[in-house]
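Shape matters. Shown next:

___
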Amino acid sequence: MKKSPTKPFLRIRALPKIKWSSIRWYKHRWQFVVVALFTMICVLLFPHASSFRFADLREGNIYIGEPIIAPFTFSINKTAEEYEQNKRLARQSVYPIFTRRDSVAVVQYAALQDFLTQIENLLEALAPDSIKALKLRQAFDERQNSISNDGMRFLLSGFSLRANANGRLNFKEYRQELERIVRDLYSIGIINLERSALPEYVQKIAIRRGSDEVIEELQNLHHTGAVNNAALQKLREVESFSESAINLGYQIATSFLRPNLFFDQLETDARVAEAVARVPLARGTVLENEKIIESHEKITKEHIQKLNSLSAAQAERQMSEGTWQRALPTLGKFLMTILSLSILIVFLRYWRMAVYEDIARVILIALILLLVVVLAHAINRMDVSEYLIPFAMAPMLLTIFFDGRLAFVGTTSLAILLGSLRGNEFTATFLCIITGMASILAVRKVRSRTWIFSAILYLAVAYVAAAAALAFLMHTPGARFSSNILNGLLNATICPILTYGVMIIFEYLFDITTDATLLELSDLNRPLLRELAVRAHGTYHHSIVVGTLSEAAAEAIGANSLLARVGAYYHDIGKLDKPEYFVENQKGGKNPHDKLAPTMSRLIIINHVKRGIEIAESNGLPKELRDFIPQHHGTNLIAYFYRKAQETNDEAEIHEVSFRYPGPKPQTKETGIVMLADGVEATTRSLRDPSVSRIRSIVSQIIAQRFTSGELDECPLTLRDLNQIKESFERTLTGIFHGRLQYPGGPEKTADSERHETSEKQTSRTSDGNPTSHDSDDGAGWPFETETGTLPAREKPRRS
């Protein structure tokens, strides 16, 4: 009999796997990380709680606010400069401690006596001078003190050993003088340091002997390097000594001089530390209910010190109330930073979603703002004028990398944050907004390298105006007003130059294409464009005209006109491979497509998009320009070859999707404009009689066809934009195909010739193999109407 399986006593169900991607905030995780790191750094850069409240007060300004009354009695703290000065004076008040060692003098004096006795005995000995000289030299060598030949001759012949000297110097008297000189030098004291080893302010030292301590003038003592000179001076003071006697005495005496006053480093340092510790932090007291400063009163150093002391006392009281109270200042800094950034974050989240979702660009924005914050903190620490803070660097970089609206919102967040970091200082906030606005206007449209000079001029005017407004409002003294203007002008000169250098670095690190880069790529002498002009002259001319149309249209709707023009220059570089297969490069000769099947022609036409991307990548074109190559075609149908395939393949089914470009559709306003300009230029180029009415009709048809086919669904072009683009195209094309006067004697058009041109078989197709707009069937339906109110008659394409 089978046993039933034993049931587990406790069944644990497997926990369901968490799908992080399904959590709403998970996709914003990297944005949260960037904001958190930025906030942490800013919180660390905030002023300390003890000096935050009144950090915006400046000496010489007028205090505008309610009178400040002391809520309790507190001490007036010294300023950092005062406290450091008092500590410095306390250090200087301590005498260096030296210890006298009498044993050194006793030992050296006894050694001198023994040496002189040995010399005297050798001189009295009955021996030839040569033997005496040999033994005397040995005696000197034992003292590691060699004697010169002149000294030896004087020692053997210059002394008398008896009382009757017969004009010679008595050796016993000479010996007594040497012993006296050495004894005097030791009694004064020889310190074991050079004078340069002691600070200049040291004029006295303390000398300890046992438990006794005396203060001596430093100039009365002998130093290690100067004691020999002192010995020489004393020898010269003896009248009976000749020059030879002085030299010999100097050689003997200095060999027995050693320091007997030794510096006590430990004791000196201990006394210095004790003196510094006794320096008080306070220098006065403010009583409870005492008025500190009145409204509209001129701020002095005394006011600032009292208010900072009040802030410090309040912070100490708050810290003593508990952990929660100690955390409040940090929490306030955190909230201030988050709320300042929230202005920019909300703008990015709802009005610049593409930037918000690109974490690299979010990091770039954070680095730009953080760069200015760190520089402002460093300048604040150096206690120099706030007019030297490079406020304009962030607005200029944000405008160059993104756009003016994002830059202005970012400047607003930065202004609030910098004002908070400087202790709720209104001046920093005001200067940041005014100079930021000026810098945004200066670089809103970079079309040449001279934008640096424009920025300098705009910033100079902004700083002068802002300094004048603040000076008149706060009754700033004339000297400080002049100083602020000079600092502002200096900042206006340096800031654009620094911005240019930082722009190059960030542009390389984050692979962002700026207008400066586009200016370089717009040079028609660049190798790629010159090659296009030589090998595919028709495509080159087409690209230049498309660039002109696109630039004017982008200007009309407020898009990036420079990007549109440069993108148009490179949008057809894929035709470099087989230029003869595109109609604009055919000089009226045979059409290679006549010998190819429609499917093969389709492959050649579509392949120029792929080759264009490859050529762009190999030439280092930025992604913003590479996007123009596939997007200006979108998913348009290659209509001419599609119809030709239908006509030549009656049996096989022809799929329309195989004759469409792979896309993607235009994703930006600029690529959408180039798509429209490309079609309009190719169509109007095929017109025999480009009259104003026909140009307007064709422009309307092209835009209507792209709009109704859904090619513009993914780009942010609005109907209002399309209307403005249409009007811009019409103006530009009318200027290109302007009418010419009929000169006398020139050929005149007859009615027959006009009918001949109208009935002539059309071979015109767009550069990508499509029929011109007026050949297609789906150009109607656009809400605009032409001047005549009807669309122009269609013309049939020529069949080969």
